[in-house]
Design a protein that fits this description.
This is Hydrolase. Keywords: Hydrolase. GO terms for molecular function: hydrolase activity. InterPro entries: Isochorismatase-like_dom, Isochorismatase-like_sf, Isochorismatase_domain. The protein is an alpha/beta fold. It is built from eight helices and six strands. It has a six-stranded parallel sheet with strand order 3-2-1-4-5-6. Strand 5, helix 6 and strand 6 form a beta-alpha-beta unit. The longest helix has 18 residues.
């Protein structure tokens, strides 16, 4: 199954100020998520940010919010965004959800499993998730795949939303996201 920009939303799970420095390749993960959020926003996908207990863990990294400044930020104390009942209609009414964030084996995993229970088509961006240990990233991705989530890369999101070469939109997206060194 392909991602379709008219049917998908991007859910950015818990990339927060106090937890982000503790995960594997924190700077790289944040850069790849910033790239992915820009791609989603430029394609017109709704983008939603979740924050796990922001009083304790801080808020979403500002450079991520800057990529989609009109996006909604939701707070939660449940690990799963679904269990927390915090997801807006921009996510719930679309059949496809693209997910990135942290931690892959906790909040991302539980959210993805429960999105699948809601019969959503879920795409987890493997190069835009992280945890504090590599083994937890691997186990989280494997468990999500086994449950029915589709594991993708950030470039898969870009090209599946583009669908074809040519035209001004393709040219603009290529220049912004494919020229020069990318995260």
């Amino acid at each position: 199954m392909l991602m379709h920009k008219e049917q998908a939303s991007l859910l950015v799970v818990d990339i927060q100020e106090k937890l982000a420095p503790a995960v594997v390749d924190a700077a790289g993960m944040a850069a790849r998520c910033r790239w992915l959020i820009g791609v989603a926003a430029d394609h017109g996908l709704p983008v939603v940010f979740s924050e796990q207990y922001p009083r304790g863990l801080g808020h979403t990294l500002p450079e991520l919010l800057a990529q989609a400044p009109d996006s909604q930020v939701v707070e939660k104390t449940h690990f799963s965004c679904v269990a927390a009942n915090c997801l807006p209609e921009t996510v719930l009414l679309r059949p496809q959800t693209i997910v990135c964030g942290m931690e892959a084996h906790v909040c991302v995993l539980q959210t993805v499993l429960e999105l699948l229970e809601l019969d959503k088509q879920v795409f987890v961006v493997a190069d835009a998730v992280s945890s504090r240990k590599v083994s937890d990233i691997e186990l989280g991705l494997q468990r999500m795949r086994d449950a029915g989530a589709v594991i993708v890369s950030k470039e898969m999101v870009l090209f599946e939303c583009l669908r074809q070469a040519g035209g001004e939109h393709f040219k603009r997206m290529s220049q912004r996201y494919l020229v020069g060194e990318q995260p």
